[in-house]
Structure formats: structure tokens, C-alpha cells
Design brief:
Elements (H helix, E strand, L loop, with lengths): L18 H20 L4 E5 L1 H10 L2 H6 L2 E6 L11 E6 L3 H10 L15 E5 L5 H8 L2 H4 L2 E6 L5 E4 L2 E3 L6 H5 L8 H17 L4 E4 L4 H20 L18 E6 L14 H8 L2 E2 L2 E7 L11 E7 L5 H6 L4 H18 L6 H5 L7 H10 L4 H23 L2 H13 L10 H14 L3 H14 L5 H11 L3 H8 L46 H11 L60 E6 L2 E2 H10 L5 E5 L2 E2 L1 H9 L3
Parallel strand pairs: 1-2, 1-3, 3-4, 4-5, 7-15, 8-9, 9-13, 13-15, 14-16
Antiparallel strand pairs: 6-7, 10-11, 11-12
Helix pairs in contact: 8-9, 10-15, 12-15, 14-15, 16-18, 17-18, 17-19, 20-23, 21-22
Length: 645
């Protein structure tokens, strides 16, 4: 079987391409363009579910049409014949998909003629096992028509420029109910998919892992063996840091365990992307929002309709705003709408000119849309995000998340917004009162989980009163207790916890968290990953805490000191005067360029959106690529905990 591999290149490093661009380029050039070198006509693209998700996350229908793909069809459904067209199959190398592929070219009582023309191209997302290849070879009607076949090594979803996940929605139980030092099917799947990520980026990484995580240590060994096997089987494949491509050092892959930070995925995060995924119904990047109709409703009688939007890399405004605090997002959108209004003849929104410093209301924005039809396209995009951000704020206000966030931040950081450490007994009473008043059981569960996780458990006498106040169902109580299976103590003094220890029940835990870059006091806490990334940028990540599978190169090489250009200084908040206010001083961050090796960070068990933002922020100084089994919001994490019962 001919493998689809990139051709060797000269040693001089060309312009760096982000992961998502590499995926798009590989599909368009190494699949579609190569197919059309052997088949000049139009073609049908046939996909199984994993293939469809890979295509959907990286290529639009316009790109497919540009490459003479007339339609994309589902392998599992009955399809109309197009016998004058060629066909490209992009499939996962599973037994079911191979069976369906063979069935397409096996005559039956209901179909005597083939579905497509004689130009067949078959590509698999990852390695095809020999037994499946032998099954394909035995289908003579298929083999005689195949004009191209290969493995594209893209068994992952490139959701952002430098971020990917494996879409493993139900792997949590398999990962966290295993016996120590054992290998599970989910771990094999992760290792196989990681090989395709590295193959796509031409990286043969040094492998590091959290020393306290048996899961990461075992996975590191599995991946090490599979990556070596891939390199040995693909002699034409090259990687950064080999003799012919020495302009860049070999990368480093750092494996982290969700169990080492159970707090971050529970916290309320007030950046745009995190709020959308936490508070609004969104599925596969698609969200429905309510918007005013333009040009049909009478003045002050705006009608609303439901609209769908895709929040992904194709929306440049989303990419720009997603990591910003929601208050900044609304202000930026308001300012841009004002700029358009002020540039239009007649200053159509005279009302907004009086309060140029305030955010626009939705009604003012709707009036602007009607008054400036020549700017309708750009205004429509601004309007879309204004509506979505306002929906977030409506829920924020309705659920009283400002007060909730202050309690969470104090628990997580050990200090209140004035920098003082309150007595734990006072905080316990405050949490109990909040639990009694919160109507949502999910919110109560989250708050209690934050208390337990941040304080390394609670005293036995406090546990009973808090559980009574939380009014959890049996299923919710089991999910909370399952934190123990990730190493979190429910009652103080029981089990081990990697976050430290406290004097029994008397003092609030003061956590050594990274300094948040936010100037908002409601966003003081920063995820543990931020500390790790800071150390990676400085080249000071502890080799004792994060050992490597094989000895690392000496200090100064890419695996140890990855950042060759850095921006000095930091951004920290001054004393915010209110929970939702900014400090008066805000140092401006400078743009940074970087060179040297890529740093790949993979979180087993799910990456939350605060961690995704931390990776994007760190990438301003060092080239980071982040990945996980899947991206998770707080509800996803609690659902995963429920699976451990």
C-alpha cells in the first residue's frame, strides 16, 4: 500500500504554518489535487463520521467546489449513483468503514452496477491495519478501479490555529477506572492519534510527562513506541531537527493529566469563548441567537428571528474577541459600530453620539443596521456578536454570577478582592448560605466541588451541613464523590492531593497560582497550566516534576530552552475598586516573534477553555500547540465525573 507522505525539503526553514493551515494544505494538495492529476472530471467525496468531522473542521464547501468536488456524501446512508464521476473516500480505518467501502463495489440483488465511475481514490485518516488492507485487496471490482490510496495522518480535529482535540466524548471512564500501569483501548487510541498530529507537523518530539501521573507515564511509553514505529515504517518522512532540516530543533511533547487540576474546569470564566461554551447552547461550533430583523419592522417595534452562527476560525471577529473579557468584547463591538455610524453620512445614530463612552444597546444597534444598508455585511457580523455577548450577559445577571464569582475566586486563590485571606469558617458559612439560595442544582454542585477541590476537602462536621444545603440528587452526589477517583479528598485528612495541605479546617488554602493577566477582580484566578507554560517559556520546567522518556539534550537546545525571543515584563492588575471594575493602570503588551522548537502540550481527560486561552496567550512568546481528548466546559467535566460511578 502506498503511503501518502510529505516529500523531503531543503534544510532552510520556510515560513511557519499553523496546525490548522497544515491540515488544510495537506487535504487540498496531497488529497484533492493529487486525485485530479489522475481524474480530470468532477468527483464525489464520501465520508464516514470521523472523516466528515475532519473535513468540517478544516475545509469549507467553497474549497471543495474549487477542487471539483460536486457533493459530499455519508458513507452510512443510501446514495444515488453518479457513474460518470470519480469518487474520493476519506475514512477512518475501522472494520465498519472498510466493510461499507467494500460493499459499495460488491454487486447485490438491489444494485448490479457500480455507484461511481472508474476513478476511485481511498484515503484513511490513520494507519490501516494489514487485515483490513487484505480485505480490500480481495475485492477485485474495487481494486481494479483504484487510482490512488494512502494514509493522510489527520485523525484529529484542528479546531483553532494552534489547538486540536480528538473528539473522544466517552473516554473518561476508560482512562480513570484503569488499574495502575495498565493499558486501555482509550490510551491506545490517544497514542495513535497523537502520531498523526506529529506526522502532520513533521515533528518527532522529545516526550515529557507529569511524574505523579501514572496515566501520563504509561501513555508516554505507548506513544514513544508508536512514534518510533511510524518513523521506521516511513523512510521518506522527515522531521524538524533531523540532519536535513536543522533550521529548527526537535519539538517537545508534554503530557498532562486532567486529574492534576480539577479546579480550573469548574470555575466560572468570563472571557467570551468560555462564557459562550458555559452559558449558551452550542454544538459543533454552531449557536442559535435571537436577532432583530432589518428593514421590515416599524421603528421601536423590532421583530426578532432566530439565526444560526458558526463560531470558528472562519469568523475573524470571533478569533479576535474570544479570549477577551466579556465587558471588553461588548465595548469593542460598540465602538466599532459607532465608528461606522460616524463615518456614514448624517451620523445616523445621533443618540449614541451623546454617550460615546458607553456600550450600545441592542435597540440602538438595530437602528444602525437599518440606517446604514451600505455597511450591512460588516454590521451584520458586529450585530451577531453583540447579540451573542448580550445573551451571555443576560444569563450572567439573571444567575447573579458576579457575586458567585467573587466567592469562587476567594476560594480558588485564598484571598478576597482586597488581597486579604478570610477565615475558612466564614467562607464555609458563606458557601452554605449561597447553596441554600442558588436555584440551579448544577450551580450548587459546581460551587460545592470548587470548595472541596480548592480546600483539599472539608471537615467532616462541615461536610454534612454543606451537603444538606446543596440538596443534590443521588446522581449529583455520586458525581461529586467521584472526585476522589481523581485524587481529590472530600474530607480533609483522607487521601492524597497534589495541591498541598492545610492546618485542619482553620486556615483558607492560599494557592500558588499563576498571576492572571486580567485586570478584572472577578478573574483573579489563573489555571495551573499557566504556571507550566510560563516555566516552559523560560526553559525552567522542572525535570524532576516533568521527566522525559529519554534523556533530554543539554540545556540551551530547543527541548529545554524553547523560547529564543521573549518579551520581558508582565501584565498584572492593580487594586480593583469593585468586582467588575478595571484597575487604573494597564501595561500594554508588546507583540513578540519567536523561533526555535515547537512545544506541544496535551491534556489527557479534557482541556477547559481557560487552559485554551492560556495556551493562546503563551503562544505570543513561544510556539505552542495545544491538544486534548476533547475540549470541555464545566457541565462536560461533571458529566465525565458521573461516568466514574
Amino acid at each position: 500500500m502506498r503511503r501518502s507522505v510529505a516529500k523531503p525539503k531543503v534544510a532552510k526553514e520556510k515560513e511557519r504554518l499553523c496546525l490548522r493551515t497544515l491540515v488544510e494544505k495537506r487535504l487540498l494538495q496531497d488529497v484533492f489535487e493529487q486525485c485530479h492529476e489522475k481524474w480530470a472530471g468532477w468527483m464525489v467525496l464520501v465520508l464516514d463520521e470521523p472523516g466528515l468531522r475532519v473535513i468540517s473542521s478544516s475545509i469549507g464547501m467553497y474549497d471543495l467546489a474549487e477542487h471539483k468536488i460536486t457533493l459530499a456524501e455519508d458513507l452510512t446512508k443510501k446514495r444515488a449513483p453518479f457513474r460518470d464521476m470519480g469518487v474520493i473516500y476519506l475514512l477512518s480505518p475501522t472494520e465498519d468503514s472498510v466493510t461499507r467501502l467494500i460493499s459499495d463495489w460488491t454487486p447485490s440483488e438491489t444494485r448490479k452496477e457500480p455507484l461511481y465511475g472508474d476513478g476511485i481514490f481511498v484515503y484513511f485518516l490513520s494507519k490501516l491495519q494489514p487485515e483490513q488492507l487484505n480485505r480490500i485487496k480481495r475485492c477485485k471490482a474495487l481494486v481494479k478501479r483504484i487510482k490512488g490510496m494512502g494514509e493522510v495522518n489527520i485523525d484529529f480535529l484542528a479546531k483553532e490555529a494552534g489547538a486540536f482535540h480528538f473528539d473522544m466524548q466517552s473516554s473518561f471512564r476508560d482512562l480513570y477506572l484503569r488499574r495502575p500501569s495498565t493499558t486501555t483501548p482509550a490510551m491506545i487510541e490517544i497514542a495513535d492519534k497523537l502520531v498523526t498530529v506529529c506526522a502532520t507537523m513533521n515533528e518527532y518530539p522529545h516526550i515529557r510527562f507529569r511524574s505523579t501521573s501514572d496515566l501520563c507515564k504509561t501513555l508516554a511509553d505507548i506513544f514513544h513506541n508508536k512514534m518510533n514505529e511510524f518513523v521506521g515504517n516511513n523512510t521518506n518522512w522527515w522531521y524538524y531537527g533531523d540532519a536535513a532540516h536543522s533550521a529548527r530543533d526537535r519539538s517537545t511533547l508534554l503530557l498532562l493529566d486532567r486529574a492534576d487540576d480539577c479546579l480550573s474546569p469548574l470555575m466560572h470564566e468570563f472571557t467570551y469563548q468560555a462564557m459562550v461554551n458555559d452559558l449558551l447552547p452550542i454544538e459543533d461550533d454552531r449557536i442559535t441567537f435571537q436577532a432583530e430583523t432589518v428593514g421590515t419592522a416599524a421603528e421601536n417595534e423590532a421583530e426578532t428571528i432566530a439565526k444560526d452562527a458558526l463560531l470558528n476560525e472562519n469568523d475573524s471577529l470571533w478569533v479576535e474577541l474570544r479570549g477577551k473579557h466579556i465587558a471588553d468584547v461588548i465595548q469593542i463591538l460598540s465602538n466599532r459600530i459607532r465608528e461606522i455610524v460616524n463615518s456614514g453620512s448624517g451620523a445616523a445614530l445621533s443618540k449614541t453620539g451623546k454617550d460615546s463612552g458607553k456600550a450600545l444597546s441592542l435597540q440602538q444597534m438595530a437602528n444602525a443596521l437599518k440606517a446604514l444598508p451600505e455597511y450591512r455585511e460588516v454590521m451584520s457580523k458586529l450585530s451577531q456578536h453583540m447579540h451573542i455577548s448580550h445573551q451571555c450577559m443576560e444569563i450572567f445577571n439573571r444567575q447573579n454570577l458576579l457575586d458567585m464569582s467573587e466567592l469562587e475566586q476567594t476560594l480558588a486563590t485564598g484571598k478576597n478582592d482586597e488581597g486579604r485571606a478570610p477565615r475558612l469558617a466564614d467562607l464555609i458559612s458563606e458557601v452554605e448560605t449561597a447553596l441554600q439560595n442558588i436555584p440551579s442544582s448544577m450551580m450548587r454542585l459546581r460551587l460545592l466541588a470548587i470548595l472541596i477541590t480548592s480546600q483539599n476537602g472539608v471537615r467532616d462536621l462541615d461536610k454534612d451541613r454543606l451537603f444538606v444545603a446543596a440538596r443534590l440528587s443521588d446522581a449529583e452526589r455520586r458525581a461529586l464523590m467521584n472526585l476522589q477517583k481523581l485524587g481529590v479528598s472530600i474530607v480533609q485528612g483522607q487521601g492524597n492531593n497534589t495541591m498541598g495541605s492545610i492546618i485542619m479546617g482553620k486556615r483558607l488554602v492560599s494557592r500558588a497560582v499563576a498571576e492572571s493577566d486580567s485586570e478584572y477582580s472577578s478573574s483573579r484566578y489563573a489555571c495551573e497550566l499557566k504556571n507550566i507554560l510560563n516555566d516552559m517559556v523560560k526553559g525552567t520546567l522542572s525535570i524532576d516534576t516533568y521527566p522525559s522518556v529519554l534523556p533530554l539534550p543539554e540545556a540551551g537546545t530547543g527541548a529545554v530552552a524553547s523560547a529564543r525571543t521573549r518579551v520581558s515584563g508582565s501584565v498584572r492588575k492593580g487594586g480593583a475598586s469593585s468586582k467588575w471594575s478595571r484597575s487604573t493602570e494597564r501595561p500594554k503588551s508588546k507583540a513578540a516573534s519567536y523561533s526555535g522548537a515547537r512545544q506541544i502540550v496535551f491534556v489527557v481527560g479534557g482541556m477547559c477553555y481557560s487552559e485554551l486561552r492560556a495556551l493562546n496567550d503563551a503562544s505570543k512568546e513561544t510556539e505552542f500547540v495545544g491538544g486534548s481528548t476533547r475540549f470541555i466546559n464545566p457541565t462536560n467535566f461533571i458529566q465525565d465525573l458521573s461516568m466514574l460511578s
